Amino acid sequence: xxxxxxxxxxxxxxxxxxxxxxxxxxxxxxxxxxxxxxxxxxxxxxxxxxxxxxxxxxxxxxxxxxxxxxxxxxxxxxxxxxxxxxxxxxxxxxxxxxxxxxxxxxxxxxxxxxxxxxxxxxxxxxxxxxxxxxxxxxxxxxxxxxxxxxxxxxxxxxxxxxxxxxxxxxxxxxxxxxxxxxxxxxxxxxxxxxxxxxxxxxxxxxxxxxxxxxxxxxxxxxxxxxxxxxxxxxxxxxxxxxxxxxxxxxxxxxxxxxxxxxxxxxxxxxxxxxxxxxxxxxxxxxxxxxxxxxxxxxxxxxxxxxxxxxxxxxxxxxxxxxxxxxxxxxxxxxxxxxxxxxxxxxxxxxxxxxxxxxxxxxxxxxxxxxxxxxxxxxxxxxxxxxxxxxxxxxxxxxxxxxxxxxxxxxxxxxxxxxxxxxxxxxxxxxxxxxxxxxxxxxxxxxxxxxxxxxxxxxxxxxxxxxxxxxxxxxxxxxxxxxxxxxxxx
Length: 489
Known about the structure:
Layout: H1 2-27, E1 30-33, E2 39-43, E3 61-65, E4 70-72, E5 86-88, E6 94-97, E7 110-112, E8 134-136, E9 144-145, E10 158-160, E11 168-169, E12 182-184, E13 205-207, E14 227-229, E15 237-238, E16 251-253, E17 261-262, E18 275-277, E19 299-301, E20 309-311, E21 321-323, E22 331-333, E23 347-349, H2 360-366, E24 372-374, H3 383-391, E25 398-400, H4 406-413, H5 415-430, H6 437-488
Parallel strand pairs: 2-3, 3-5, 4-6, 5-7, 7-8, 8-10, 9-11, 10-12, 12-13, 13-14, 14-16, 15-17, 16-18, 18-19, 19-21, 20-22, 21-23, 23-24, 24-25
Antiparallel strand pairs: 1-2
Protein backbone atom coordinates (compact mmCIF):
# COMPACT_ATOMS: atom_id res chain seq x y z
CA UNK A 1 0.00 0.00 0.00
CA UNK A 2 2.85 2.37 0.89
CA UNK A 3 4.49 1.83 -2.51
CA UNK A 4 1.23 2.62 -4.31
CA UNK A 5 0.84 5.89 -2.40
CA UNK A 6 4.48 6.71 -3.08
CA UNK A 7 4.01 6.20 -6.85
CA UNK A 8 0.87 8.34 -6.88
CA UNK A 9 2.71 11.17 -5.10
CA UNK A 10 5.59 10.97 -7.58
CA UNK A 11 3.19 11.11 -10.55
CA UNK A 12 1.39 14.06 -8.98
CA UNK A 13 4.60 16.05 -8.57
CA UNK A 14 5.69 15.25 -12.12
CA UNK A 15 2.32 16.42 -13.46
CA UNK A 16 2.47 19.56 -11.29
CA UNK A 17 5.98 20.37 -12.53
CA UNK A 18 5.01 19.93 -16.18
CA UNK A 19 1.84 21.98 -15.73
CA UNK A 20 3.56 24.86 -13.95
CA UNK A 21 6.37 24.86 -16.50
CA UNK A 22 3.88 25.00 -19.36
CA UNK A 23 1.88 27.73 -17.65
CA UNK A 24 5.00 29.81 -17.11
CA UNK A 25 6.03 29.43 -20.74
CA UNK A 26 2.55 30.26 -22.02
CA UNK A 27 2.18 33.22 -19.70
CA UNK A 28 5.25 34.76 -21.29
CA UNK A 29 4.34 37.02 -24.20
CA UNK A 30 6.36 35.49 -26.97
CA UNK A 31 6.21 34.25 -30.56
CA UNK A 32 8.07 31.28 -31.98
CA UNK A 33 8.19 29.61 -35.36
CA UNK A 34 7.12 25.97 -35.12
CA UNK A 35 10.08 23.85 -36.18
CA UNK A 36 9.93 22.67 -39.79
CA UNK A 37 6.90 24.76 -40.66
CA UNK A 38 5.84 28.19 -41.84
CA UNK A 39 3.64 28.77 -38.77
CA UNK A 40 4.26 31.45 -36.17
CA UNK A 41 2.79 30.57 -32.77
CA UNK A 42 2.27 33.37 -30.25
CA UNK A 43 1.57 33.02 -26.53
CA UNK A 44 -0.09 35.42 -24.09
CA UNK A 45 -0.22 38.30 -26.56
CA UNK A 46 -2.31 41.46 -26.37
CA UNK A 47 -3.69 43.26 -29.41
CA UNK A 48 -1.06 46.00 -29.25
CA UNK A 49 1.77 43.42 -29.30
CA UNK A 50 1.26 42.44 -32.94
CA UNK A 51 2.81 45.69 -34.17
CA UNK A 52 6.12 44.53 -32.68
CA UNK A 53 6.23 41.28 -34.67
CA UNK A 54 8.68 41.10 -37.57
CA UNK A 55 7.23 39.18 -40.49
CA UNK A 56 8.79 37.80 -43.65
CA UNK A 57 7.52 36.14 -46.77
CA UNK A 58 8.22 32.68 -45.36
CA UNK A 59 5.51 32.91 -42.70
CA UNK A 60 2.11 31.74 -43.95
CA UNK A 61 0.22 30.95 -40.73
CA UNK A 62 -0.25 32.83 -37.47
CA UNK A 63 -1.71 31.09 -34.44
CA UNK A 64 -2.44 32.73 -31.08
CA UNK A 65 -2.58 30.54 -27.98
CA UNK A 66 -4.11 31.81 -24.74
CA UNK A 67 -3.92 35.39 -25.82
CA UNK A 68 -6.04 38.13 -24.31
CA UNK A 69 -7.03 40.16 -27.35
CA UNK A 70 -10.22 41.81 -26.04
CA UNK A 71 -11.61 44.42 -28.44
CA UNK A 72 -9.24 44.29 -31.42
CA UNK A 73 -8.54 47.83 -32.75
CA UNK A 74 -8.29 48.81 -36.46
CA UNK A 75 -5.20 47.88 -38.49
CA UNK A 76 -3.92 45.50 -35.80
CA UNK A 77 -2.49 43.17 -38.46
CA UNK A 78 -1.32 45.80 -40.95
CA UNK A 79 2.44 45.27 -41.01
CA UNK A 80 5.08 44.93 -43.72
CA UNK A 81 5.86 41.69 -45.54
CA UNK A 82 2.58 40.18 -44.43
CA UNK A 83 1.83 37.12 -46.56
CA UNK A 84 -0.35 35.21 -44.11
CA UNK A 85 -2.70 32.60 -45.57
CA UNK A 86 -4.17 31.45 -42.25
CA UNK A 87 -4.97 33.43 -39.10
CA UNK A 88 -6.19 31.46 -36.06
CA UNK A 89 -7.48 33.57 -33.17
CA UNK A 90 -9.75 30.97 -31.60
CA UNK A 91 -10.21 30.93 -27.82
CA UNK A 92 -8.45 34.26 -27.23
CA UNK A 93 -11.10 36.20 -25.32
CA UNK A 94 -12.02 38.45 -28.24
CA UNK A 95 -14.97 40.61 -27.18
CA UNK A 96 -15.40 42.84 -30.23
CA UNK A 97 -14.36 43.72 -33.77
CA UNK A 98 -14.39 47.13 -35.44
CA UNK A 99 -14.18 48.23 -39.09
CA UNK A 100 -10.76 47.78 -40.70
CA UNK A 101 -9.63 45.30 -38.03
CA UNK A 102 -8.06 43.00 -40.63
CA UNK A 103 -6.67 45.52 -43.11
CA UNK A 104 -3.31 44.39 -44.43
CA UNK A 105 -4.12 40.69 -44.68
CA UNK A 106 -4.44 40.73 -48.47
CA UNK A 107 -3.33 37.11 -48.89
CA UNK A 108 -5.51 35.64 -46.14
CA UNK A 109 -7.54 32.56 -47.12
CA UNK A 110 -8.66 31.16 -43.77
CA UNK A 111 -9.82 33.07 -40.68
CA UNK A 112 -10.72 31.35 -37.40
CA UNK A 113 -12.40 33.45 -34.68
CA UNK A 114 -14.26 30.58 -33.01
CA UNK A 115 -14.81 30.17 -29.29
CA UNK A 116 -14.63 33.84 -28.34
CA UNK A 117 -17.12 36.40 -26.97
CA UNK A 118 -17.97 38.38 -30.11
CA UNK A 119 -21.52 39.77 -29.87
CA UNK A 120 -22.01 41.82 -33.01
CA UNK A 121 -20.63 42.04 -36.55
CA UNK A 122 -20.37 45.66 -37.71
CA UNK A 123 -20.51 46.20 -41.49
CA UNK A 124 -17.03 47.10 -42.76
CA UNK A 125 -15.24 44.91 -40.21
CA UNK A 126 -13.78 42.64 -42.87
CA UNK A 127 -12.47 45.22 -45.31
CA UNK A 128 -9.12 44.18 -46.73
CA UNK A 129 -9.61 40.39 -46.60
CA UNK A 130 -11.73 39.80 -49.68
CA UNK A 131 -9.77 36.64 -50.53
CA UNK A 132 -10.85 34.70 -47.44
CA UNK A 133 -12.43 31.37 -48.43
CA UNK A 134 -13.13 29.77 -45.03
CA UNK A 135 -14.41 31.81 -42.08
CA UNK A 136 -15.16 30.25 -38.66
CA UNK A 137 -17.24 32.23 -36.15
CA UNK A 138 -18.50 29.19 -34.25
CA UNK A 139 -19.17 29.39 -30.49
CA UNK A 140 -19.41 33.14 -30.00
CA UNK A 141 -22.23 35.27 -28.58
CA UNK A 142 -23.59 36.79 -31.77
CA UNK A 143 -27.31 37.60 -31.53
CA UNK A 144 -28.08 39.31 -34.84
CA UNK A 145 -26.73 39.35 -38.36
CA UNK A 146 -27.13 42.85 -39.81
CA UNK A 147 -27.38 43.82 -43.46
CA UNK A 148 -24.02 43.68 -45.32
CA UNK A 149 -22.24 42.09 -42.36
CA UNK A 150 -20.04 40.01 -44.67
CA UNK A 151 -20.31 41.92 -47.95
CA UNK A 152 -16.51 42.42 -48.20
CA UNK A 153 -15.93 38.65 -48.28
CA UNK A 154 -16.78 38.22 -51.95
CA UNK A 155 -14.77 35.00 -52.33
CA UNK A 156 -16.12 33.28 -49.22
CA UNK A 157 -17.04 29.61 -49.72
CA UNK A 158 -17.61 28.31 -46.17
CA UNK A 159 -19.15 30.36 -43.33
CA UNK A 160 -19.68 28.79 -39.90
CA UNK A 161 -22.01 30.69 -37.54
CA UNK A 162 -23.11 27.68 -35.49
CA UNK A 163 -23.34 27.60 -31.69
CA UNK A 164 -24.14 31.28 -31.27
CA UNK A 165 -27.22 33.07 -29.89
CA UNK A 166 -28.60 34.27 -33.23
CA UNK A 167 -32.30 35.19 -33.09
CA UNK A 168 -32.52 37.41 -36.20
CA UNK A 169 -30.98 37.48 -39.66
CA UNK A 170 -31.89 40.67 -41.47
CA UNK A 171 -32.53 40.95 -45.22
CA UNK A 172 -29.27 41.51 -47.05
CA UNK A 173 -27.18 39.90 -44.29
CA UNK A 174 -25.38 37.76 -46.87
CA UNK A 175 -25.18 40.29 -49.67
CA UNK A 176 -22.32 39.83 -52.17
CA UNK A 177 -21.58 36.26 -51.02
CA UNK A 178 -22.07 34.86 -54.51
CA UNK A 179 -19.47 32.11 -54.07
CA UNK A 180 -20.79 30.81 -50.74
CA UNK A 181 -21.35 27.05 -50.89
CA UNK A 182 -21.61 25.98 -47.23
CA UNK A 183 -23.51 27.93 -44.55
CA UNK A 184 -23.73 26.60 -40.98
CA UNK A 185 -26.35 28.12 -38.66
CA UNK A 186 -27.17 25.17 -36.39
CA UNK A 187 -27.45 25.50 -32.60
CA UNK A 188 -28.80 29.03 -32.53
CA UNK A 189 -32.11 30.62 -31.45
CA UNK A 190 -33.72 31.18 -34.85
CA UNK A 191 -37.50 31.02 -34.65
CA UNK A 192 -38.60 32.76 -37.83
CA UNK A 193 -36.82 34.36 -40.77
CA UNK A 194 -37.42 38.02 -41.50
CA UNK A 195 -39.72 39.07 -44.35
CA UNK A 196 -37.67 39.82 -47.44
CA UNK A 197 -34.77 37.62 -46.34
CA UNK A 198 -33.31 35.15 -48.81
CA UNK A 199 -30.35 32.83 -48.58
CA UNK A 200 -27.55 33.21 -51.15
CA UNK A 201 -28.63 31.46 -54.32
CA UNK A 202 -25.44 29.42 -54.83
CA UNK A 203 -25.41 27.59 -51.47
CA UNK A 204 -25.05 23.82 -51.79
CA UNK A 205 -25.25 22.85 -48.10
CA UNK A 206 -27.41 24.65 -45.53
CA UNK A 207 -27.40 23.68 -41.85
CA UNK A 208 -30.31 25.01 -39.76
CA UNK A 209 -30.63 22.20 -37.25
CA UNK A 210 -31.07 22.71 -33.50
CA UNK A 211 -32.91 26.01 -33.70
CA UNK A 212 -36.52 26.80 -32.77
CA UNK A 213 -37.96 27.24 -36.25
CA UNK A 214 -41.69 26.58 -36.04
CA UNK A 215 -42.88 27.76 -39.43
CA UNK A 216 -41.36 27.18 -42.82
CA UNK A 217 -41.56 30.21 -45.02
CA UNK A 218 -40.64 30.04 -48.65
CA UNK A 219 -37.01 31.03 -48.10
CA UNK A 220 -35.30 28.23 -49.94
CA UNK A 221 -35.15 29.60 -53.46
CA UNK A 222 -31.69 28.15 -53.88
CA UNK A 223 -31.17 26.54 -57.25
CA UNK A 224 -27.93 24.75 -56.34
CA UNK A 225 -28.92 23.49 -52.89
CA UNK A 226 -27.98 19.82 -52.43
CA UNK A 227 -28.23 19.26 -48.66
CA UNK A 228 -30.74 20.82 -46.26
CA UNK A 229 -30.57 20.17 -42.51
CA UNK A 230 -33.69 21.21 -40.55
CA UNK A 231 -33.50 18.62 -37.78
CA UNK A 232 -34.24 19.41 -34.12
CA UNK A 233 -36.62 22.33 -34.65
CA UNK A 234 -40.30 22.94 -33.86
CA UNK A 235 -41.68 22.45 -37.38
CA UNK A 236 -45.19 20.99 -37.38
CA UNK A 237 -46.39 21.12 -41.00
CA UNK A 238 -44.70 20.73 -44.38
CA UNK A 239 -46.81 22.68 -46.92
CA UNK A 240 -47.70 21.44 -50.37
CA UNK A 241 -45.01 21.98 -53.02
CA UNK A 242 -42.83 23.64 -50.40
CA UNK A 243 -39.54 22.44 -51.87
CA UNK A 244 -40.42 23.16 -55.50
CA UNK A 245 -37.72 25.89 -55.69
CA UNK A 246 -34.87 23.54 -54.76
CA UNK A 247 -35.27 20.93 -57.46
CA UNK A 248 -31.62 19.79 -57.25
CA UNK A 249 -31.89 18.83 -53.58
CA UNK A 250 -30.40 15.41 -52.77
CA UNK A 251 -30.70 15.23 -48.97
CA UNK A 252 -33.35 16.54 -46.55
CA UNK A 253 -33.11 16.06 -42.80
CA UNK A 254 -36.38 16.83 -40.98
CA UNK A 255 -35.88 14.45 -38.08
CA UNK A 256 -36.60 15.38 -34.46
CA UNK A 257 -39.28 17.96 -35.17
CA UNK A 258 -42.98 18.10 -34.28
CA UNK A 259 -44.36 17.34 -37.72
CA UNK A 260 -47.95 16.14 -37.51
CA UNK A 261 -48.87 16.60 -41.16
CA UNK A 262 -47.27 16.25 -44.55
CA UNK A 263 -49.48 17.83 -47.15
CA UNK A 264 -49.97 16.03 -50.44
CA UNK A 265 -47.05 16.55 -52.82
CA UNK A 266 -44.98 18.21 -50.08
CA UNK A 267 -41.89 16.86 -51.83
CA UNK A 268 -43.08 17.50 -55.35
CA UNK A 269 -40.49 18.12 -58.08
CA UNK A 270 -37.63 16.65 -55.99
CA UNK A 271 -36.68 14.19 -58.68
CA UNK A 272 -33.04 14.13 -57.53
CA UNK A 273 -33.73 13.47 -53.84
CA UNK A 274 -31.76 10.51 -52.45
CA UNK A 275 -32.09 10.83 -48.64
CA UNK A 276 -35.25 11.76 -46.72
CA UNK A 277 -35.14 11.62 -42.92
CA UNK A 278 -38.43 12.13 -41.03
CA UNK A 279 -37.40 10.23 -37.93
CA UNK A 280 -38.85 11.10 -34.51
CA UNK A 281 -41.88 13.21 -35.40
CA UNK A 282 -45.60 12.75 -34.66
CA UNK A 283 -46.89 11.66 -38.05
CA UNK A 284 -50.05 9.55 -37.88
CA UNK A 285 -50.52 9.11 -41.63
CA UNK A 286 -48.77 9.89 -44.88
CA UNK A 287 -50.55 10.86 -48.13
CA UNK A 288 -50.79 8.10 -50.69
CA UNK A 289 -48.91 10.09 -53.35
CA UNK A 290 -46.33 11.69 -51.03
CA UNK A 291 -43.34 9.93 -52.63
CA UNK A 292 -44.72 9.64 -56.14
CA UNK A 293 -42.00 11.78 -57.77
CA UNK A 294 -39.04 10.65 -55.67
CA UNK A 295 -37.81 8.19 -58.25
CA UNK A 296 -34.16 8.46 -57.14
CA UNK A 297 -34.80 8.07 -53.41
CA UNK A 298 -32.33 5.68 -51.79
CA UNK A 299 -32.81 6.13 -48.04
CA UNK A 300 -36.14 6.73 -46.25
CA UNK A 301 -36.47 7.01 -42.48
CA UNK A 302 -39.96 7.26 -40.94
CA UNK A 303 -39.10 5.60 -37.64
CA UNK A 304 -40.35 6.84 -34.26
CA UNK A 305 -43.62 8.31 -35.49
CA UNK A 306 -47.25 7.29 -34.87
CA UNK A 307 -48.03 5.56 -38.16
CA UNK A 308 -50.59 2.76 -38.19
CA UNK A 309 -50.90 1.93 -41.89
CA UNK A 310 -48.20 2.14 -44.55
CA UNK A 311 -48.39 1.60 -48.28
CA UNK A 312 -45.76 0.12 -50.57
CA UNK A 313 -47.71 0.87 -53.73
CA UNK A 314 -45.56 3.82 -54.86
CA UNK A 315 -42.83 2.69 -57.28
CA UNK A 316 -39.43 3.65 -55.82
CA UNK A 317 -37.02 1.76 -58.06
CA UNK A 318 -33.76 3.02 -56.47
CA UNK A 319 -34.79 2.74 -52.81
CA UNK A 320 -32.21 0.74 -50.82
CA UNK A 321 -33.03 1.29 -47.13
CA UNK A 322 -36.37 1.90 -45.40
CA UNK A 323 -36.87 2.32 -41.67
CA UNK A 324 -40.45 2.08 -40.31
CA UNK A 325 -39.45 0.96 -36.81
CA UNK A 326 -40.97 2.24 -33.54
CA UNK A 327 -44.41 3.11 -34.90
CA UNK A 328 -47.83 1.55 -34.32
CA UNK A 329 -48.09 -0.15 -37.70
CA UNK A 330 -50.69 -2.93 -37.80
CA UNK A 331 -51.25 -3.09 -41.55
CA UNK A 332 -49.02 -2.93 -44.62
CA UNK A 333 -50.57 -2.41 -48.03
CA UNK A 334 -48.55 -4.48 -50.50
CA UNK A 335 -49.45 -4.67 -54.20
CA UNK A 336 -50.21 -8.17 -55.47
CA UNK A 337 -48.49 -9.72 -58.42
CA UNK A 338 -44.86 -9.71 -59.41
CA UNK A 339 -44.60 -5.95 -60.02
CA UNK A 340 -41.28 -5.28 -58.22
CA UNK A 341 -42.06 -1.70 -57.22
CA UNK A 342 -39.10 -1.75 -54.79
CA UNK A 343 -36.66 -3.52 -57.03
CA UNK A 344 -33.43 -2.42 -55.28
CA UNK A 345 -34.64 -2.53 -51.67
CA UNK A 346 -32.03 -4.25 -49.49
CA UNK A 347 -32.93 -3.29 -45.91
CA UNK A 348 -36.42 -3.06 -44.40
CA UNK A 349 -36.91 -2.36 -40.70
CA UNK A 350 -40.42 -3.03 -39.35
CA UNK A 351 -39.40 -3.69 -35.76
CA UNK A 352 -41.25 -2.37 -32.70
CA UNK A 353 -44.70 -2.20 -34.30
CA UNK A 354 -48.06 -3.95 -33.90
CA UNK A 355 -47.95 -6.32 -36.86
CA UNK A 356 -49.94 -9.51 -36.39
CA UNK A 357 -49.69 -10.53 -40.04
CA UNK A 358 -47.13 -10.00 -42.78
CA UNK A 359 -47.58 -11.12 -46.37
CA UNK A 360 -43.90 -11.88 -46.85
CA UNK A 361 -44.50 -13.64 -50.18
CA UNK A 362 -45.89 -10.52 -51.84
CA UNK A 363 -43.28 -8.42 -50.05
CA UNK A 364 -40.46 -10.47 -51.54
CA UNK A 365 -42.01 -10.33 -55.00
CA UNK A 366 -42.05 -6.54 -54.76
CA UNK A 367 -38.55 -6.41 -53.26
CA UNK A 368 -36.61 -9.31 -54.80
CA UNK A 369 -33.22 -7.95 -53.64
CA UNK A 370 -34.18 -7.82 -49.96
CA UNK A 371 -31.28 -9.09 -47.81
CA UNK A 372 -32.28 -7.90 -44.32
CA UNK A 373 -35.78 -7.89 -42.82
CA UNK A 374 -36.24 -6.83 -39.20
CA UNK A 375 -39.61 -7.63 -37.62
CA UNK A 376 -38.51 -7.84 -33.99
CA UNK A 377 -40.99 -6.80 -31.29
CA UNK A 378 -44.26 -7.29 -33.16
CA UNK A 379 -47.29 -9.53 -32.63
CA UNK A 380 -46.47 -12.09 -35.29
CA UNK A 381 -47.32 -15.72 -34.42
CA UNK A 382 -44.31 -17.96 -33.87
CA UNK A 383 -45.01 -20.15 -36.89
CA UNK A 384 -44.25 -17.11 -39.07
CA UNK A 385 -40.55 -17.44 -38.33
CA UNK A 386 -40.42 -21.06 -39.47
CA UNK A 387 -42.40 -20.30 -42.61
CA UNK A 388 -40.25 -17.30 -43.54
CA UNK A 389 -36.99 -19.18 -42.96
CA UNK A 390 -38.13 -21.91 -45.30
CA UNK A 391 -39.32 -19.38 -47.90
CA UNK A 392 -36.40 -16.95 -48.14
CA UNK A 393 -33.04 -18.02 -49.59
CA UNK A 394 -30.71 -18.36 -46.60
CA UNK A 395 -27.45 -17.77 -48.47
CA UNK A 396 -28.02 -14.03 -48.92
CA UNK A 397 -30.90 -13.18 -46.57
CA UNK A 398 -30.97 -12.23 -42.88
CA UNK A 399 -34.16 -12.31 -40.79
CA UNK A 400 -34.59 -10.71 -37.36
CA UNK A 401 -37.81 -11.93 -35.77
CA UNK A 402 -36.98 -12.20 -32.05
CA UNK A 403 -39.06 -10.95 -29.11
CA UNK A 404 -42.48 -11.29 -30.73
CA UNK A 405 -45.57 -11.94 -28.63
CA UNK A 406 -44.74 -15.09 -26.65
CA UNK A 407 -48.37 -15.66 -25.70
CA UNK A 408 -49.24 -16.13 -29.37
CA UNK A 409 -46.48 -18.71 -29.68
CA UNK A 410 -47.84 -20.57 -26.66
CA UNK A 411 -51.30 -20.50 -28.16
CA UNK A 412 -49.92 -21.90 -31.40
CA UNK A 413 -47.98 -24.65 -29.65
CA UNK A 414 -50.99 -25.65 -27.59
CA UNK A 415 -53.60 -25.32 -30.29
CA UNK A 416 -55.12 -28.73 -29.47
CA UNK A 417 -55.75 -27.70 -25.88
CA UNK A 418 -57.33 -24.46 -27.04
CA UNK A 419 -59.57 -26.34 -29.47
CA UNK A 420 -60.70 -28.66 -26.67
CA UNK A 421 -61.44 -25.67 -24.46
CA UNK A 422 -63.50 -24.12 -27.24
CA UNK A 423 -65.50 -27.34 -27.61
CA UNK A 424 -66.08 -27.50 -23.87
CA UNK A 425 -67.13 -23.85 -23.89
CA UNK A 426 -69.65 -24.46 -26.67
CA UNK A 427 -70.95 -27.57 -24.92
CA UNK A 428 -71.49 -25.82 -21.61
CA UNK A 429 -72.96 -22.74 -23.28
CA UNK A 430 -75.52 -24.80 -25.16
CA UNK A 431 -76.52 -26.86 -22.09
CA UNK A 432 -79.92 -25.57 -20.94
CA UNK A 433 -79.13 -22.25 -22.57
CA UNK A 434 -76.90 -21.18 -19.69
CA UNK A 435 -73.35 -19.88 -20.01
CA UNK A 436 -71.03 -21.44 -17.43
CA UNK A 437 -67.82 -20.37 -19.14
CA UNK A 438 -66.85 -17.78 -16.52
CA UNK A 439 -67.24 -20.45 -13.83
CA UNK A 440 -65.09 -22.87 -15.86
CA UNK A 441 -62.34 -20.30 -16.34
CA UNK A 442 -62.45 -19.46 -12.63
CA UNK A 443 -62.21 -23.15 -11.78
CA UNK A 444 -59.22 -23.58 -14.11
CA UNK A 445 -57.47 -20.61 -12.54
CA UNK A 446 -58.15 -21.96 -9.02
CA UNK A 447 -56.81 -25.43 -9.92
CA UNK A 448 -53.72 -23.92 -11.55
CA UNK A 449 -52.96 -21.77 -8.51
CA UNK A 450 -53.56 -24.76 -6.19
CA UNK A 451 -51.16 -26.96 -8.19
CA UNK A 452 -48.57 -24.16 -8.18
CA UNK A 453 -48.80 -23.80 -4.39
CA UNK A 454 -48.53 -27.58 -3.84
CA UNK A 455 -45.51 -27.69 -6.15
CA UNK A 456 -43.87 -24.83 -4.29
CA UNK A 457 -44.46 -26.55 -0.93
CA UNK A 458 -43.02 -29.84 -2.22
CA UNK A 459 -39.99 -28.02 -3.59
CA UNK A 460 -39.36 -26.21 -0.30
CA UNK A 461 -39.75 -29.51 1.59
CA UNK A 462 -37.29 -31.22 -0.73
CA UNK A 463 -34.72 -28.45 -0.27
CA UNK A 464 -35.17 -28.55 3.53
CA UNK A 465 -34.74 -32.34 3.73
CA UNK A 466 -31.70 -32.22 1.50
CA UNK A 467 -30.04 -29.58 3.65
CA UNK A 468 -30.79 -31.57 6.82
CA UNK A 469 -29.20 -34.70 5.32
CA UNK A 470 -26.12 -32.74 4.29
CA UNK A 471 -25.83 -31.24 7.78
CA UNK A 472 -26.20 -34.67 9.49
CA UNK A 473 -23.62 -36.18 7.16
CA UNK A 474 -21.20 -33.36 7.96
CA UNK A 475 -21.66 -33.86 11.70
CA UNK A 476 -21.15 -37.62 11.32
CA UNK A 477 -17.90 -37.08 9.42
CA UNK A 478 -16.65 -34.73 12.08
CA UNK A 479 -17.50 -37.25 14.85
CA UNK A 480 -15.70 -40.07 13.04
CA UNK A 481 -12.68 -37.84 12.49
CA UNK A 482 -12.47 -36.89 16.18
CA UNK A 483 -12.93 -40.50 17.25
CA UNK A 484 -10.17 -41.70 14.94
CA UNK A 485 -7.84 -39.02 16.21
CA UNK A 486 -8.60 -39.98 19.83
CA UNK A 487 -7.86 -43.66 19.21
CA UNK A 488 -4.57 -42.85 17.55
CA UNK A 489 -3.48 -41.06 20.69
